Sequence to fold (394 residues):
Amino acid sequence: MKRETVTILGATGSIGESTLDVIGRNPKSFRVLALTANHNTQRLAKQCAQFNAELAVIANPALENELYDALKELGASTAVMSGEAGLLAAAGMPEVDIVMAAIVGAAGLKSTLRAAETGKKVLLANKESLVIAGEFFVLTARQNGARVLPVDSEHNAIFQVLPAGFEQGLAQAGVDRIILTASGGPFLDMPTDKLRWVTPAQACNHPNWDMGRKISVDSATLMNKGLEVIEARWLFNAPPEQLEVLIHPQSIVHSMVAYRDGSVLAQMGTPDMRTPIAHALAWPRRIESGVKRLNLSLENDLSFRQPDLDRFPCLGLAFEAMRVGENAPVTLNAANEVAVAAFLEERIKFNRIPSLVDEIMQDLDVSAIKDIDDVLKYDKLARTRALELVKRKS
Ligand code: NAD
Ligand code: MG
Fold:
């Protein structure tokens, strides 16, 4: 079997590193062609040297020389590019089969879209792209013969337990509901009056998953689950009323699909992103991922409960944005990205994240989205307003 070639957008992040780990365990199946990062030139150069990458891209153009020097020092013959042009080139390289889209936030939109436009197998971790431009993304992939494989653990789980041909319509496939599980994050049972005082370090200390800082904060507010509900809407062509969230603190059941006949199918595993990454990389084959085997006899307490929307207003805001549609998810996502960054910089308190997102959503009109330029326009508008609020009140 031919070795498949891979680009990783966001190679230095948590998903990027886990992807390289899985590729390293399966050198006969995959070959790295291009790796990208935002500013960590040393880490990127090391990865390129280790995996013999042909192209390294640093998003910040001011760091191109630094990357060049770091590669030279390691004796790597990797070519260097930078900025948006570099990211688009890495995503669309004609000789690349698979693109892992693992940049965090709306910053990943254009390069992820380029992978879809060029008909790649797109391994989708960058959920924000689907939240803000899901309809366009799915259409672009379909028109260009790109196969989208979900990497987010919930969506990967759902993909594994959905029947073939689900894209034609969930009802036709006998599906009643899609149930996304949520761990509830580090503050699931903390008294709500204490939430105001939690620190970035506490918010990033997730009980089950080791992830980047932005998604860790999103998991603590449950905005992550809200973004995932919108992601599922587009990935699975799911009507909003068929999407549900259930709290499952142990993160063993990664999500479920309930069928018309009463069957509920779940996918389980140790909480380690290398399982969904390996699944998406090799699909429809199964490969070694390095993940610790699940021993259910040691998991004697698998519990489930309804989410508390008073404690986690972000989840309700995301459901609202999904139902409203148009530019509402763009506004939700942009305001959240600004709020989370401000919290991580200790400019706002943790419990200000949902109220700031809510204010921006109330403040901005709902407008139709015609194309990607509209997405970018409303993203910028919401960011500007959110930044003003952060500045005014911090
Ligand atoms: P991370 O912060 O660890 O890594 C982000 C990567 O994106 C880094 O390589 C960084 O260099 C790059 N990047 C950041 N800003 C950029 C910019 N402006 N331009 C270009 N590159 C940029 O994040 P992560 O945890 O790996 O998450 C990546 C994506 O995967 C997110 O969308 C997240 O929601 C999703 N995801 C992550 C996990 C997880 O376990 N970490 C699970 C499910 C989904
Ligand atoms: Mg997830």
